[in-house]
């Protein structure tokens, strides 16, 4: 029996976004995931996951490939959005090691 909560109309109250799917792809060490693996992670049916993935594939967010008679592997084509904290850290890091284009060229010339 599922421990998911339902609202007053009987629908599940949790929401899963495309970003949630992209984050799942991002955090796994596997080259790809299958719909049953994703369904297990989110606690929904394989069919619901497959439908969402097909829509995301049409939008260019994910890609799929058949891997046997019934198996389909899915992987992300884009990274998930950064959290506000991670975005600030990335911006700060990019400023710390920033160099002018001229200095960048001279660095590559000195390596040759």
From TrEMBL:
Where does this protein have compositionally biased stretches of type Acidic residues? 99-112
Tell me the ranges covered by the HTH marR-type domain, including all copies. 30-65
Top-level taxonomic group: Archaea
**Record SUPFAM superfamilies:** Winged helix' DNA-binding domain (SSF46785)
> Which BP terms from GO are recorded?
regulation of DNA-templated transcription
Identify the stretch(es) annotated as Disordered: 85-112
Q: What is this protein called?
A: Winged helix-turn-helix domain-containing protein
Organism of derivation: Halobium salinum
């Amino acid at each position: 029996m599922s421990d998911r909560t339902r609202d007053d109309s009987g629908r599940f109250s949790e929401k899963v976004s495309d970003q949630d799917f992209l984050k799942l792809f991002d955090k796994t060490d596997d080259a790809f995931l299958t719909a049953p693996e994703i369904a297990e992670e989110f606690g929904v049916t394989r069919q619901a996951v497959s439908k969402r993935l097909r829509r995301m594939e049409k939008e260019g967010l994910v890609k799929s490939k058949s891997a046997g008679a019934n198996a389909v592997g899915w992987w992300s084509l884009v990274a998930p959005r950064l959290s506000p904290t991670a975005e600030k850290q990335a911006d700060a890091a990019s400023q710390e090691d920033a160099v002018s284009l001229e200095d960048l060229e001279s660095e590559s010339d000195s390596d040759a």
